[in-house]
Amino acid sequence: MEIFVQQLINGLTLGSIYGLIAIGYTMVFGIIGMVNFAHGDVFMLSAFIALIFFLILTTWLGISSVVLALFFVLIIAMVLTSLWGWTVERIAYRPLRGSFRLAPLISAIGVSIFLSNFVQVAQGARNKPTPPMVQDVIVLFQGESGYNVALSYKQVIIMVVTAVLLTIFWYVVQKTSLGRAQRACEQDRKMAALLGINVDRTISLTFVIGAALAAVAGTMYLLYYGVVSFTDGFVPGVKAFTAAVLGGIGSLPGAVLGGLIIGLIETFWSAYFSIEYKDVAAFSILAIVLIFMPSGILGRPEVEKV
Amino acid sequence: MNAPSITTTAKTNTVSRHFDMAAAFKDALKAALIMLGLSIPILVYKTDQSGADLFLTPRWGLVAIVCAIVFGLRLVLHAFTASRAYRQATPSPHQATEPVHAMPSAFQHVSRFAIPFFVGVAVTFPILVYLIQGGLNESRYWVDLGILILTYVMLGWGLNIVVGLAGLLDLGYVAFYAVGAYSYALLSTTFGLSFWICLPLAGILAAFWGVILGFPVLRLRGDYLAIVTLAFGEIIRLVLINWVDLTNGGAGISSIPRATFFGIPFSSGEGGFADTFGLEFNGMHRMIFLYYLILALALLTNFVTMRLRKLPVGRAWEALREDEIACRSLGINTTNTKLTAFAIGAMFGGFAGSFFAVRQGFVSPESFNFLESAIILAIVVMGGMGSQIGVAIAAIVLVGGPEILRNLTFLQSVFGSGFDPNEYRLLLFGAGMVAMMVWRPRGLISEREPSVILKERKAISGSLVKEGHG
Fold it and tell me: Can you tell me the ipTM of this complex?
């Protein structure tokens, strides 16, 4: 029972990180129908940006409050990663509108290889550990066998930040003109353009928002694991994509739901079955979901247009 | 969609005769500023580890150089587009009066001579190297490089069947390579089977896996199919790592029997290759044999592909690539067509895999990661998906290029002594894939025209035909 509750907490934490990344996949897929394969690497890049700024803020500028430092790091990482997201869209995806169907995916794979190796060349191939940031835990209750169910502060921070940012994001998509434009483009890009919506700008903004949320996920990932390397984009990226597909690609609540489910499955699988095969589990879910229920839990079934 | 606009001539006057320096300058400055933003902090500060702590080393000089390069490139790009726009806007005196002939592309002229030339060079390569380097041992490096390149040529041709001909994006091709390699490794170490028995078995097993993995994904659209094949490829690799009883896990399988010359081992003793043929023993004999082996396998792949293209199944692949829905309406069984493409592509991957195992004498799961799939895909993409000679050239340039660059010592004096082009190889691969999709989606040397022609060959280059969406 104690293990179950503990794993539930861990799974929800991991799931919020996946959910944040999954939104980037699902929004881009919804609006231009492409799998942004490079999104996982944008996430990894943002973790590096967060790491470097955390070091700058704490060691050079001498900010001693970790929470304050994290807050600044989060803002800076979001801004700079957005710039990356925007540039990638501008260079690698925008010229491909109207090209053949697989062109954007191949281009995205190219971007993914480029980004991970760019980070490798710029920062070196080793794992980069951070000094532990937040270490305190709250003991929720003590089990009979002496097994404590603990909720660490960093898990609280991760869940709270995720919840707050998702609320802001939800508000933007549902209530602002930007969100309306975005949803319009998602439904019918040509019609939206006729009605005076700047489609290119809306698509760019989609990438910017996706990258910013990936930056939040990257910062939280760094906070949670305390280590990042240039290869860290691939597997979390695939898992987040799995989450997006599981939740129903194109559906924003679906992405968050899928993220939480994938996070829970991963932690429970590691706890109860085998930790070696946890990635096999994730990849199998991806294959099974894509083959048997490609429209996911909350997605609309896709109609094939001739 | 992209019909030439009627107002081209009217626009002539509006295209400015002079190059708008100020605007180009401003735009280049903007690009450089964006580059500056991108390089903060990932390029500006390098994290180095000392003990448990990380510390930062600033590199503003490098960033300044990078931004200057971006600025310069952007300016050159502006000048280029401006001059092109000017050329296009100025009507040539012959333009309207002469009928436009659809000329065969320059490549088609060249290819008549290029293909025999390439095959000739490939066949005589060890001899050429021997003559140039002046000895068997001196030519070891070059023959080894030749083997490496040919392995990628073969893999590229194998994947080309799936991606280039059938239009199915397979991101897990390396799984079949792994199946082939492990088939040979396990069959030879457990049952003591020879390479010549294992080679077809490895091909059959890989083809079998191609069908097994291909079958569930047939219903999927292009990009979903790609992701599922990626997932399968990763699952196979992870199983190879974790199924320690069978595969010895991440440590890999070592001491795999070496190739023999049709039963005669390349050993120094009695009854060895050198002894039988009355030669002086040299380890290079085996290398040269391996070179010709992979050359034969690669040429076999090419030959089979070229023949298959002319068969109904090959035409069905090409039709499937162009438009799946039209293909289905014409009564082509898309399931079988896709499965044969998967199986045959996988079979050649399996051959290449068992060659890899016999060459290395050692296999481990790390040789079969996603990056390897991506490299093979990059070769196919840059060769112009569907073009056989293009794939070969791409493999030579992409695999051989960095090796040759590494040996150019003057580059080290320019970039510093620690310069290793192999570090930047994947960076260039990634950028190259993007550039290819943006500028030449059909590949640098695409000659992807249909294999079947009615009456006469009309030289419509593949890049002029808009691809169907299906």
Answer: 0.85
